[in-house]
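pasting for the record
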Amino acid sequence: MAATTSSAHIAHTLLSRAHPASTATTIFTTKVLHKPLHLRPTSPDPTSQDARSRRRLLRLRKAARISRKSKTFPLSAKEKRVLGIYDIPASARKHDLYIPLHKLWVGYMWEILGLKEREKNAAYVTAQGQGSKLPSADFHGAKVQVVRSRCVGRVGCEGIVVRDTKFTFEVVTAKDELKTIPKEHTVFRFEIPQPQGDFRKGENSSQKPRNLVFELHGSQFMNRATDRATKKFKQRNLNDL
């Protein structure tokens, strides 16, 4: 009897005091003997988990950096100058190559000024009517001539505009030379031939109409061609020439 008592589980002994023998045995079997024991795993080590997460984070950052470098971005102005994207090669510096461009520009200016070939009721060109349209026009293909400048060596330079930048005109002369003319303190002159035919009512159609002559003050024209399309120009005093 003493051996049986000593071999009994302490939990079963306590349950026998509070419950009948059958109930105590059932509770002891289900709640004590067959109770699941949840243990914290000791492997892998928690520090190794942190190292694994750190390696994964570094791997993701490296992949994002490589992906960001592989994306295409527009070239900066400095990179364009180094690569010479807008440089005109020597083979393209021929005056005859840009004569069709000049003819195309003349037709473009006829539309701006309201002149159409063989139109009887064509409008007369006046400073009040068409003067405000000229500053917003595109001058790629215009044949310009320097008539006044603070630099005497530029006076008389004439050619077709092949590039219109914010501060300069790049022209190709009749001698197949590419020259860059600053707009500042320079006055340019350009002519636009009028359409042939009976475009004016009451005028003698046998006489060849005179060309329209304009002067462009470069100091008041220092804007990109794309910016001039929406820019409003104001009258200013010209005291520098």
